[in-house]
Design brief:
Blueprint (H helix, E strand, L loop, with lengths): L6 H12 L4 E5 L14 H6 L3 E5 L4 H9 L8 E5 L12 H6 L1 E3 L3 H13 L6 H6 L1 H4 L2 H10 L9 H8 L7 H10 L8 H8 L3 H12 L7 H17 L15 H13 L4 H15 L1 H5 L4 H4 L6 H13 L10 H12 L6 H14 L9 H28 L2 H4 L3 H26 L14 H6 L6 E6 L4 H11 L5 E9 L6 H8 L5 E4 L2 E4 L7 H11 L4 E4 H6 L2 H8 L4 E6 L2 H5 L8 H20 L5 E5 L5 E2 L9 E2 L9 E3 L2 E4 L9 E5 H5 L6 E5 L4 E2 L7 E2 L5 H4 E9 L7 E2 L2 E3 L5 E2 L3 E8 L7 E2 L1 E9 L9 E5 L10 E6 L11 E7 L8 E6 L5
């Protein structure tokens, strides 16, 4: 029990009662014992050899009458007065004091006895307790001090007072200063600083940072932070600090860097750190001093938003209006290096990175569309993904900063539209003939090639306009799940590449035919969920049709009921086309694509955990999306009087023969439906569009790889627990010795990332035997692939510069951010020479 020890006082007072005194008077002018000498204190009730009689303000005469009352004549009293003993002429107890006894107690002695017993203080700490008695008077502060006290502070017990006043459980120079900064940079209004002053430890606080940072007589919080900030920047640059920035440099660079790194990495103080660095940067005009710094030097400065912004400006300046990028590979290297850390400009950097990947692509010419198709499904599809990423990141840049990137965005939009899309569509249609597509590559043979005859339940997820490049991203996301094996196939749609053609083609059928604006499946309509379910169940009564949204919203029990005893289950999903095909929302097409990938991935996991072992993801058609303006001269104008049929931006269907239309090609509808239908399907031979109703940025229906190539992602899975493990690393060093304040530690990743080995981050730092961190915390990303596995991983460590006891134990800690392994620790010998 942590309470003021009264036993010594009670023993001494009881001695006076044993000597025959009826009254003992105890004056306590500072109220040092008021919290404990109370009538409800059970210890006093049980151990005091008299009755306790507290005396309140102006109660002397009343209490004297009570004590002299006839009924109290034979009783003994301890009279406790929380006041100074009055002068004789005002002392109503004066006559009683003459035949009683006046007792006094030193609070510092009592407090020392308690601390000595609880914390093993020796007699040398008596003056310490006396010096800081004001702090120790309150029971709550004494309890906190005893509870938090660290044995390593036995020679500097005053440090625990600072720590407790800042509401910290442990003393640490870095944590203490962060907590103080949190209280505000104005010392007069900072509650922690005021409490330091109140309890006489403020001089100690300043002295600590004089020594810790190697500065002299800095007596303002702003001075401490600004000095640490400037010193951290220039010590990482390995340059001398301009005298006009900091008249007296902070000489202890290692401690400054540790503090700033810990501050920048702290989640608790992240906003405060950004506010303070931003204010210091602006007030000191640090940008003007660093504007000519070499990029590679700036890259060494860690955790400062404004440095990242300088680097961003340098990177952005490398993008020329003509589409060239100065020092392209080096520019991407800078972006990748900055992106390894957490910074406020990830969206901007990622936009520029994806822009570079789009700009560096150079379309090639092909003699045969089969070769072009093969290149697209194996590598060229990535260009469309890069464009999707750059648009997505551009949209996420805050509006007040987006104007800085408008010219680059306009330039890359034009390049993607004119140099990539247009040339790709032209090249495709130079040799492509729909009638030459082999049977096993046709969308209409999907059911026969991938579903028919299977002796197991198959779930087919059909996502409207889920184009091939998005499916490849989905495949990449599930690649690290060892419970799922996948194979990517593809098919080509017919023309036009639209929903009302694609959805019926994916159903089981004997024949398809065009009639009154609809594709009939074996003579039956298939234009909605009800009619498609009838088609499925006409082939097998146990076939079923579901909506993907219903699966995501259902409980496991409900899903089991949905799929019980079912054979082939078609699951329909309409995220991309629903957004893209609406003029009001077509600019959200790529956001919808990202959402579709996420929803399908979640549905796959839900189905897998409910005993579905075979899932196929496909689409009815793809799409073209570009943000370059479609100029009026790029629109193909065909007067409505020239035909009787249906027109959309990327196709025209009519029984009429239209000839000699520049830039337009045609094919018979019967080629798509494998019948003799002579309806003409006209489509642009380029990326151009027909003048018609509908969107112009999001389009489909025509002849292009983006519109016609549909994914067939075939997945096998099991519901067992994953056997995958997180990556592990091993320390490469053989000498476990701390010989310098700065160290670069090398680690080897044990196994490359695969479906059985998942990436993992590690925090690397040193700590002492008391569990106190004595360095910065470095981060390592264990994400090496098979091609990179022999490249070591590095962690730059800065040790705090302080007095170290070589007889104590020190440890290198490898702390993983996920996984249940015990944190590996390596014992190190401390060989630093103390100043």
């Amino acid at each position: 029990m942590v309470q003021l020890k009264l036993d010594k006082i009670v023993k001494e007072i009881n001695n006076y009662f044993d000597q025959g005194y009826q009254y003992v008077f105890w004056y306590d002018p500072d109220g040092e014992f008021a919290d404990d000498v109370t009538e409800d204190n059970q210890y006093l009730k049980d151990n005091l050899a008299a009755e306790l009689q507290p005396v309140g303000e102006k109660e002397q005469f009343k209490i004297k009458r009570k004590l002299l009352d006839k009924k109290n004549q034979d009783r003994s009293f301890l009279v406790y007065v929380k006041a100074k003993r009055p002068q004789l002429q005002f002392d109503y107890f004066a006559d009683m004091e003459r035949y009683g006894h006046i007792f006094s107690a030193k609070a510092s002695d009592i407090v020392f006895e308690q601390l000595a017993e609880q914390l093993n203080f020796d007699n040398s700490k008596r003056n310490f307790v006396k010096k800081y008695l004001k702090y120790f008077r309150a029971k709550s502060r004494r309890q906190t001090y005893i509870h938090n006290f660290e044995s390593r502070l036995i020679n500097h017990p005053e440090l625990m007072i600072l720590s407790n006043l800042a509401s910290l459980d442990q003393f640490d120079e870095n944590s203490l200063l962060m907590a103080v900064f949190k209280g505000g940079m104005d010392e007069s209004n900072n509650k922690i600083i005021r409490s330091f002053s109140k309890y006489d430890v403020l001089p100690l606080f300043w002295q600590i940072y004089d020594k810790y940072f190697g500065c002299s007589n800095v007596r303002s919080l702003k001075g401490l932070f600004d000095g640490a900030f400037v010193t951290s920047v220039y010590s990482q640059l390995e340059e001398k600090i301009p005298s006009e920035l900091l008249a007296q440099p902070f000489e202890n660079y290692s401690n400054v860097q540790v503090f700033m790194k810990r501050f920048s990495d702290s989640r608790k103080y992240q906003e405060l750190y950004q506010n303070l660095t931003g204010a210091a940067w602006n007030e000191l005009k640090l940008g003007t001093y660093l504007k000519d710094e070499n990029v590679q030097d700036l890259l060494r400065v860690d955790g400062i938003k404004q440095i990242d912004e300088l680097l961003l400006e340098r990177v952005r300046a490398n993008f020329n209006a003509d589409g060239t990028v100065i020092d392209g590979d080096e520019t991407i290297g800078v972006i990748d290096q900055v992106a390894r850390g957490v910074n406020a400009f990830n969206r901007e950097f990622n936009f520029l990175k994806e822009t570079y990947h789009v700009l560096k692509y150079r379309p090639r010419f092909y003699d045969d569309w089969h070769e072009m198709l093969n290149d697209y499904v194996n590598k060229v599809f990535k260009v469309d993904t890069h464009y999707r990423y750059l648009v997505t990141n551009y949209r996420r840049i805050s509006e007040d900063k987006r104007h800085k990137y408008e010219d680059i965005k306009r330039m890359v939009d034009d390049y993607y539209n004119d140099q990539i899309l247009d040339q790709s569509v032209r090249e495709w249609n130079t040799t492509f003939q729909l009638q030459d597509v082999e049977s096993n590559q046709r969308e209409q043979n999907f059911y026969r090639n991938f579903v028919h005859g299977a002796n197991e339940r198959i779930v087919v997820i059909i996502s409207d306009a889920f184009r091939y490049e998005a499916a490849r991203e989905l495949q990449a996301q599930i690649a690290n799940d060892d419970r799922i094996t996948s194979k990517m196939n593809y098919l080509l749609t017919g023309l036009p590449s639209v929903t009302y053609m694609g959805m019926p083609s994916l159903l089981p059928h004997h024949k398809l035919e065009w009639q009154k604006g609809n594709v009939l499946v074996d003579g039956h309509m298939a234009n909605n969920a009800g009619s498609r379910r009838k088609v499925l169940q006409s082939w097998n009564k146990d076939n079923e049709l579901l909506e993907l949204d219903d699966i995501l919203k259902a409980t496991s029990k409900e899903i089991k009921a949905m799929i019980a005893n079912k054979n082939v289950i078609y699951v329909y999903h309409n995220q991309v086309d629903a957004i893209g095909d609406n003029l009001k929302t077509e600019d959200e097409t790529f956001r919808a694509t990202d959402q579709a990938i996420d929803e399908i991935r979640r549905a796959i996991q839900v189905l897998r955990t409910n005993s579905v072992s075979h899932i196929i993801v496909t689409a009815d058609h793809g799409f073209i999306y570009r943000e370059a303006s479609v100029e009026e001269q790029s629109k193909i104008d065909i007067p409505a009087s020239d035909y009787n049929g249906k027109i959309s931006p990327r196709y025209l269907m009519t029984p009429d023969d239209l000839s000699n239309i520049p830039g337009v090609m045609s094919v018979k509808l019967g080629i798509s439906l494998t019948n003799s239908d002579q309806t003409n399907v006209y489509y642009p031979a380029t990326v151009n569009v027909f003048k018609s109703q509908g969107g112009k940025n999001y389009v489909h229906g025509g002849s292009s790889l983006q519109e016609m190539v549909i994914p067939v992602l075939d997945m096998r899975m099991n519901s067992s627990r994953s056997k995958a493990e997180f990556a592990e690393i091993r320390l490469a060093a053989t000498q476990h010795s701390i010989n310098a304040l700065r160290m670069t530690l090398k680690f080897n990743q044990v196994e490359p990332i695969s479906d059985l080995i998942r990436p993992r981050k590690f925090n690397i730092y040193f700590m002492n035997q008391f569990g106190q961190i004595i360095s910065n915390v470095a981060t390592i990303n264990a994400n090496r692939t098979d091609a990179e596995i022999n490249q070591p991983l590095s962690a730059d460590i800065v040790i705090q510069n302080r007095q170290y006891d070589r007889s104590e134990d020190y440890y290198l800690v490898i702390d993983p951010d996920k996984g249940s392994i015990t944190n590996p620790r390596y014992q190190y010998q401390m060989n630093l020479i103390n100043d």
